[in-house]
Amino acid sequence: MSTVWPTEHFNHSSTNRSCPVEEETLRLPLAVLYSLIFLFGLAGNLLALWVFLFLHSRRNSVRVFLINMTLADLVLLACLPFRVLYHAQGNVWSLGPHMCKAVGNLFYMNMYVSITLMGLISLDRYLKIIGVKGSQRGCGQRWLRGSRWSLVTCVLLWSGSLVMVVPMIALVERNEETGKCFQYKQRKHARGKAYFNLFLVAVFWLVFVVLLVSYGRIARRLLHASRDKPDLPNATRYARTAKKSFVVLLLFTICFVPYHSFRGFYVWSQLRDVSCETQRIMDLTNEVMLLFSALNSCLDPVMYFMLSGSVRKATIQALSQFLSWQQEPAVTNSSTTEFRRTSVSHASTAAVLTTSRGSLGLITPNLRSKPDDPESCHQITPLTN
């Protein structure tokens, strides 16, 4: 046995050298695009994290999920400078194989953490808006109403992700090529990792179905409310809110569906003897699809601000106060008093922003169709509070 593995390793390395799969023409475009995603994504997610932690004061499960999703996006973005450096240096990796596997696996781990959190948000909204049949109050069990269950879920999600990703980093695949990273690899001698990648693809499609069902039924409830009860004060907003809820599905589909539609074929080719040309096609397609997936970390903050009126108003007010403070610094007692008065006003506004004025939080208790309807909900809360 001891003489077999070195021979296989040598043959596979020789095959890699005789079949360069990376496309040279993509090198600079990838470096530029990943740099732009990193810069805009970093600015947007840091701003979003600041809003969620310090301005968006409502303590609920969605806020917990959004904070964790922002953290996942930031960790994913932290992996992008390594990809930029790799492509900028002519697709040459100089940080060693362990660092390559750490960066690559952390990138994928946080991408799937973000995907899972999107599914949990949609499930949380579904249970609190549509409700669970057989529940006395029609909005699910009491433990779903607070934020404790989301905290526990996030801890389990991060813990499970780390437990799964550490072996992936430590696993010796015997297919590393010196000076290369992020390239197409054969996994005939690392089938465990290939099968794990297929498992992640299955997780994505499960989350995608949950998103379709959850937001589809939520949108239908809102559209029915606007049509059946046009006299309600917010009836005209229900239809707009229902349409905006599909923006979440649209962004999710654009960023992740192309990559995961192709991913199964990519992993299948890694487990088979395929031609050099097929390997090049797989590597090229995977790089383009992965770029769309990385783009999601840049678009998530846009989704927060566009769909949540409370987040948008809190951000705009905070930025306007910051700019006015920079232009007119408080140097006198009167200006200090005015600054304190503004701070109190901002605190009051932050509390008000958690009401139903958000773009996706427009539903009032009047939406109940019948007092004893088991599927009616006391209040439809924001999709992204």
Automatic annotation (TrEMBL):
Signal peptide positions on this chain: none
Localisation per UniProt entry: Cell membrane
Single GO MF descriptor: G protein-coupled purinergic nucleotide receptor activity
Keyword annotations from UniProtKB, A to Z: Cell membrane, Disulfide bond, G-protein coupled receptor, Glycoprotein, Membrane, Receptor, Transducer, Transmembrane, Transmembrane helix
InterPro entries: GPCR_Rhodpsn, GPCR_Rhodpsn_7TM
Region feature Disordered, mapped onto this chain: 365-385
Membrane-traversing stretches: 31-53, 65-86, 106-127, 148-170, 194-215, 246-268, 288-307
Record's bilayer topology term: Multi-pass membrane protein
Domain of life: Eukaryota
Residues in G-protein coupled receptors family 1 profile domain copies: 44-304
GO CC terms of this entry: plasma membrane
Protein family according to the UniProt entry: Belongs to the G-protein coupled receptor 1 family.
Described function: G-protein-coupled receptor of lysophosphatidylserine (LysoPS) that plays different roles in immune response. Acts a damage-sensing receptor that triggers tissue repair upon recognition of dying neutrophils. Mechanistically, apoptotic neutrophils release lysophosphatydilserine that are recognized by type 3 innate lymphoid cells (ILC3s) via GPR34, which activates downstream PI3K-AKT and RAS-ERK signaling pathways leading to STAT3 activation and IL-22 production. Plays an important role in microglial function, controlling morphology and phagocytosis.
PANTHER family: G-PROTEIN COUPLED RECEPTOR 34-RELATED (PTHR24233:SF1), P2Y PURINOCEPTOR-RELATED G-PROTEIN COUPLED RECEPTOR (PTHR24233)
Record protein name field: Probable G-protein coupled receptor 34
UniProt organism field: Carassius auratus (Goldfish)
